[in-house]
Design brief:
21% strand; 6-stranded parallel β-sheet; 8-stranded mixed β-sheet; alpha/beta; Rossmann fold; elongated; 843 residues; 28 helices
Length: 843
């Protein structure tokens, strides 16, 4: 298609004028309108952005490369000349480059080496509606830079965008909108729910392809699948259908070679089927597509609290993503979209994806911000602030890894970690691998912890026996066995039959290899020495410890798998771990399992030594002496303990304690109900209730209320000198409690809130005092005769509740208005009770 016929080209004059008038622009244009390829060229060619590079941020590496190649072709330039691209571990740029497509993290890292971004005139944020975390952060850094570089232009582009919050964030800014051109697309839903466990999604996609082709649908086909494995199976399934003869069936995802990617998006001499990940959803446009088949899934990164990192999970896409995919069929002519889910299922899908800032691990981006001189990340100018708990957890992890100190400042180790384009946990692992001569093993461990375990559980005694025979036994680390299992699978080319004998998941093992190779490539690029020899067990154990020191655990005792974990947590060693006999371990995975209550399971464990904690983390070792209550001895003891990040490593007890500390601790046990003050009885509680009744009912008389703080002070005074349960038997409770008031105040209590009130009938009736309740006087109806006014205490300011009892002493009526009681309630009660109790007096 001629670029000048693309819908976005209609905005070229408005865009040029906007660049001349201001430095912040929002462009909203639908998928396929040409914004990703044409806007950077318009910016460069109009001359209103000033001298310097136009840097275009893309969420995906594949899109950055393909878009750069397309724009270079349109400008009749070689790739890497006027137009280039830069992604992790790959770049094609030169001194001549004026338009540079980059993935979002690249520019954020450029801020570290050049905070002023010299030579950059314009930053274009493409596909911003996807709300990737690095896009958010880089936009915030760019806005901050504009304060000192007002010449820097910022353009934010999106296919579908809630522009309100972004408009406010970028204000003042100019908004431009292209309506685009979209042909109608017919949406076909599955007639009934497809169970992909029994009918794989690739077979369902092949069925939909066959249905579409046999019904006479025209044009090329785009099939959406969540990842590389599903794509390869889909390619096989479609090629196996008779109706696919004459079609070129091509995969498209980020792990393919550049040649294979180009083949998928380029021109073809026959009809083609492109099977792609969500990279084809918005970032790139493939000409000729008129049929879309959508499995409705994508691999989405979410924070996994078990591993403490982001994990790619296969999840249902949102309705907004489904709409984007559907639109791919109507770019050049009317089309159809076959959704492999029902219309009812569609309604249940979320409207949009959560922004990454709310579902991602923040460790890598926070470390990058720290390296960029932004120490106060809590008050950073976030477009959408992260969850405070998530941010606090991130800072704690970075401190545990040694990347920041306890004041939140970047350390020398943290500065080294920033250069590794990976999660800080694994950056720390590779640095440790260099120190201990196990970089190769560190790369493999990092790869093994990214996805599902390659060793299947509960495979039976025969499989366990074969596994032990082939892999050998080990009591040092679960990773030793895991690495041997992966090597076995790799040597056997991931054949399902060979892997099944050992209970190895062939598919999961296959996915480890590209990750392993990627980590090895990063290690080589950062100048690390790739060891040829296997390291000593101790060296590998220390390497693992440095990467997972936030998950150190200590066995409670030899007879149990229960462990205490640093930072006040607890859990149980997994029953399949090989290090069940170790006293101290570090777990690479802490998994929460729902069941009867919440069980915390420690997996992928490695045995460690206390001496290593002293050696590697001297600042996190604390030795302290404190007085504590021993529940077994029922006494306060002096405890000397050694702690690592709150985890007790050693402890010894002595009986000599400070009397004041002992009194406070014994008092806490009493107040918590675990110890008893024998002479603090119901009479004491009643007296306290009387005091509080007068204090609350007659505040002008200055009687101090006895609240929880006062109780605590009283109990502490009573317990002074006591160090054990036996010492509480003869404590002088009344003396201490009544010392709360002066002699004159005690006299007021006796007179104004009396224990008994004399009734006209001659009965000396007891008054009940309860915390938070008005005082209550209970008497049988016959004893209440002639009591025509409600009794009052506390200088006549506190009315007493009168509880009228039947002759059997059961309550019949409560009142604070005796006159109304005799006039209204009593006649009814008399009628009811007189027949039951004829021998009693009834007036």
């Amino acid at each position: 298609m001629n670029p000048k016929k693309l819908p976005i080209y209609e905005l070229r004059v408005e865009l040029s004028d906007a660049l001349k008038a201001g430095n912040r622009i929002i462009i909203e244009a639908p998928t396929g309108s040409g914004k990703s390829t044409q806007v950077p060229q318009i910016v460069l060619d109009c001359g209103n952005a000033g001298p310097g590079e136009v840097v275009v941020l893309q969420p995906r590496r594949l899109a950055a490369r393909l878009l750069a190649k397309r724009v270079a072709f349109e400008r009749n330039e070689p790739l890497g000349g006027e137009v280039g691209y830069q992604v992790r571990m790959e770049k094609h740029v030169s001194a001549k480059t004026q338009i540079r497509y980059v993935t979002e993290g690249i520019l954020l890292r450029q801020f570290l080496s050049d905070p002023q971004l010299r030579g950059v005139s314009t930053i274009v944020f493409d596909e911003f509606h996807e709300r990737h975390i690095y896009g958010d952060i880089t936009l915030a850094r760019a806005l901050r830079l504009q304060k000192t570089r007002p010449d820097l232009k910022i353009i934010v582009m999106s296919a579908t965008l809630d522009a309100g919050p972004l408009r406010e964030y970028l204000a003042p800014c100019r908004e431009l909108k292209s309506e685009g051109r979209m042909f109608p697309v017919e949406i076909c839903y599955a007639k009934k729910r497809i169970d992909f466990r029994h009918h794989p999604m690739w077979e369902a996609a092949a069925d939909a392809f066959e249905q579409a082709i046999e019904s006479g649908a025209e044009g090329d086909v785009l099939v959406f699948m969540p990842g590389g494995y599903e794509i390869s199976r889909t390619v096989e399934a479609i090629r196996g259908r008779r109706c696919a003869r004459g079609f070129a069936v091509l995969p498209l995802h980020g792990e393919l070679s550049a040649h294979d990617q180009d083949a998928a998006v380029g021109e073809c001499d026959r009809r083609k089927v492109v099977v792609a990940t969500n990279v084809a959803e918005t970032s790139i446009t493939i000409d000729g597509i008129r049929i879309v088949i959508d499995a409705g899934f994508a691999r989405i990164a979410r924070y996994d609290p078990n591993r403490g990192i982001d994990t790619l999970l296969v999840e249902r896409i949102s309705r907004a993503s489904a709409d984007q995919r559907t639109g791919r069929a109507g770019r050049t002519a009317p089309g159809t979209c076959h959704r492999l889910w029902t219309e009812q299922e569609h309604v249940a899908r979320p409207m949009q994806e959560l922004p990454e800032i709310l579902r991602h691990d923040l460790a890598e981006v926070v470390l990058t911000l720290k390296a960029g001189g932004i120490d106060d990340v809590e008050n950073f100018e976030w477009l959408e602030p992260p969850d405070p708990k998530s941010l606090a957890r991130t800072l704690a992890l970075l401190a545990d890894l040694g990347a920041i100190d306890h004041a939140g400042r970047l350390t020398a180790v943290g500065q080294k970690m920033v250069s590794f384009p990976m999660h800080p946990r694994y950056a720390r692992m590779l640095l440790a691998g260099q120190e201990y001569g196990c970089v190769r093993q560190a790369c493999l461990i990092a790869a093994l912890t990214q996805g599902r375990s390659i060793l299947e559980r509960n495979k039976g005694a025969e499989t366990r026996g074969t596994r032990d025979e082939v892999l050998g036994e080990d009591d040092v680390s679960d990773f030793q066995r895991l690495m041997r299992a992966w090597s076995f699978a790799d040597q056997n080319q991931y054949r399902v039959d060979a892997c099944r004998r050992l209970g190895v998941h062939a598919g999961a093992a296959r996915l480890v290899k590209p990750l392993y190779q990627r980590f090895m490539k990063i290690a080589e690029q950062e100048g690390l020495d790739i060891n040829a020899r296997a390291p000593l067990d101790e060296d590998l154990q220390k390497c693992i410890l440095l990467s997972f020191s936030d998950q150190v655990a200590k066995r409670r005792d030899r007879g149990t798998l229960h462990c205490a974990v640093v930072h006040g947590r607890a859990g149980d060693l997994d029953r399949d771990t090989v290090v069940r006999d170790a006293e101290l371990v570090v777990a690479a995975e802490i998994r929460e399992i729902e069941g009867r209550g919440l069980n915390v399971r420690l997996n992928l464990c490695t045995a460690i030594s206390e001496a290593w904690l002293d050696e590697l983390f001297p600042e996190d070792i604390e030795e302290k002496t404190e007085a504590v209550f021993d529940p077994v001895l029922k006494r306060v003891v002096s405890k000397e303990c050694k702690l690592f990040r709150g985890l007790e490593l050693q402890a010894s007890m002595k009986q000599a304690v400070d009397p004041q500390q002992a009194a406070e601790i014994i008092a806490e046990e009493v107040l918590a109900g675990r110890l008893e003050l024998y002479k603090w009885d119901e009479a004491v509680e009643t007296w306290i209730a009387r005091v509080n009744c007068l204090a609350e009912g007659c505040p002008d008389y200055g009687i101090p209320a006895i609240d929880e703080e006062a109780r605590r002070a009283m109990v502490q005074e009573i317990c002074l000198g006591a160090v054990c349960k036996r010492d509480l038997k003869d404590r002088p409770v009344w003396k201490v409690v009544k010392s709360w008031l002066s002699a004159a105040q005690l006299d007021l209590i006796d007179k104004q809130v009396p224990e008994r009130i004399k009734l006209p009938s001659g009965l000396n009736a007891r008054v009940r005092y309860e915390a938070g309740q008005p005082p209550v006087l209970s008497a049988s109806i016959q004893k209440l005769y002639d009591l025509n006014e409600t009794p009052r205490i506390g200088f006549g300011q506190i009315p007493v509740v009168v509880e009228a009892l039947a002759p059997n002493q059961r309550p019949q009526q409560k009142t604070q208005d005796m006159k109304s009681f005799w006039e209204n309630a009593y006649p009814m009660l008399k009628k009811e009770l007189k027949g039951r109790y004829p021998k009693h007096e009834w007036r």
